[in-house]
Amino acid sequence: MQKAYSKTETISFGIGVVEVSPKTQGLGRALKEVTIAIEHATILHPIQFFNESMETTLIREEIIVQELKKVLGGALDLFHLEYQPIIDSSNGKIAGFEALSRLTSSKLGILTPMEFIGIAEKNQLIIELGQIIFEQAFLFLKKLQGEYGTSLYIAVNVSALQLLEESFVSQLVTMADRIGINLEQLRLEITESLFIDNIPFTVGQLKKIHQLGIKVFLDDFGTGYSSISRLEELNIDSIKFDKYFVDRLIIPNEKGVANDIISMVHHLGKTIVAEGVEKESQKLQLMAMGCDFMQGYLFGKALPPEYILDLLKNEHLAKGNTLFRC
Q1: DSSP state, residue 126
Q2: Using alpha carbons only, what angle is made at residue 27 by residues 21 and 29, rounded to the nearest 5 degrees?
Q3: 53-57, 166-170, 256-260 — which one is most confidently predicted on average?
Q4: pLDDT digit string (tens) for 253-279?
Q5: Which residues contact 225 (CB under 8 A, 6 or more apart)?
Q6: Entry pTM
Q7: Could you tell me if residue 105 is left (phi over 0), alpha (psi between -120 and 50 degrees) or otherwise beta?
């Protein structure tokens, strides 16, 4: 059996293969296994042989879809944001926070966006979910604004499907006006997948976003499709240096790539944020290379908003003690 895909004038296919044996419980079961195998076919791996782990994965995905639909139906107790600090390397203080989604399932426990965002996109749920994410982020930003003015920002990850919506920018403005927040405190994190298609429209959307005073981060730089020429074309303010390169800093003779990327980013007039900083040695090397901002467990994990507010209200931490000082 085959499944057809279409994307920008290309057609690819998927083939599911099932071994028919005495254990196969009739034609119905065989067809189900073939269908499951086809669901796992990709452009790079179009032929898939059925195995039981595929069925386990599919069942898990179906549970997540149902949980997401509950959230969209109003069960907001199942969904919340946590915030991880982003540290200014020049003074060791908190510059802002990245908002990270958490989905709570009664069957699967707490799930991270790495698992459920892709499922939300696949099942056309990401636009509505994105509205909930921005709503919660803006409400938290409102609290930060009341306590600390415009000194702190919130970075929110944006799906390609969200950014490619015609009404995306106007909806941001409407929500910001309703809640009463300064959009200049917002950062949008986009991924390199946006660079594959719809470049003219993406450039136009990013131009509108910049006109509102919103800065744009390019996430996971160096692991996807971006190029220097593309970075110059798009309105990107800051590059997020992927954890892959940060991890390699502890490997002898592997520092050159990181140093070259930081130098190149600065040459383009942009700042750089290193993700996944977990070791003191990584922090010191990144500082020596001139990395502008850092984020990772060395400085703090993602926390619910009430804990972040308590953290900031603690005068000792707010001044930049050894937990955050660089």
Answers
A1: H
A2: 80
A3: 166-170
A4: 777 788 888 998 899 899 999 999 999
A5: 192, 193, 195, 196
A6: 0.82
A7: beta
